[in-house]
Amino acid sequence: QVRLVESGGGLVQSGGSLRLSCAASGRTYVRYGMGWFRQAPGKEREFVAAISWSGDSIDYEDSVKGRFTVSRDNAKNTVYLQMNSLKPEDTAVYSCAAAFGTMTRDPSNFVSWGRGTQVTVSS
């Protein structure tokens, strides 16, 4: 369907910022909705944010509202996650994923996944 590769992760102090990128290749002409998920050690994967193909529909997990911003540039086949005011509890592997059709938080609706990028927030 589409190949996704995340970048931009790293080590940052509490209160700092990072911007993650998700570059798509392959069937980029398909109007995928995009989601961001994260998984910390010992925890289940959780939904972070989603954005429709047009960008007119956006959804955030409550814990990141006001701190994270998801956006996309379809001309560059790239989705972004701007992460501000980072907290140690944000430490996780962050993955992007592509879904057909309507907005969704359900991982089973996403048909392609990147391998993830590590975000570590120190105290």
Secondary structure layout:
Elements (H helix, E strand, L loop, with lengths): L1 E6 L2 E4 L4 E9 L6 E7 L6 E6 L6 E3 L7 E6 L4 E6 L8 E8 L10 E4 L3 E6 L1
Parallel strand pairs: 2-11
Antiparallel strand pairs: 1-3, 3-8, 4-5, 4-9, 5-6, 7-8, 9-10, 9-11
In short:
The chain has 123 residues and is mainly β.
Keywords:
globular; 7-stranded mixed β-sheet; 4-stranded antiparallel β-sheet; 11 strands; 123 residues; mainly beta
Note the total helix count: 0
- Taken in chain order, the helices and strands follow as EEEEEEEEEEE
Q: Which blocks of ≥5 consecutive residues have pLDDT under 50? A: none
* Radius of gyration of CA atoms, rounded to a whole number: 13 Å
Q: What overall form do the CA principal axes indicate? A: globular
Percent of residues in helices comes to under 10%
Which whole number gives the mean pLDDT?
Answer: 95
Beta strand count = 11
* Sheet having the most strands: 7 strands, mixed
Helix-strand category: mainly beta
Task: Please provide a written account of the structure.
- The chain has no helices and eleven strands.
- The protein is mainly beta.
- A hairpin with a 6-residue loop joins strand 4 (33-39) and strand 5 (46-51).
- It is globular.
- The model has no long low-confidence stretch (mean pLDDT 95).
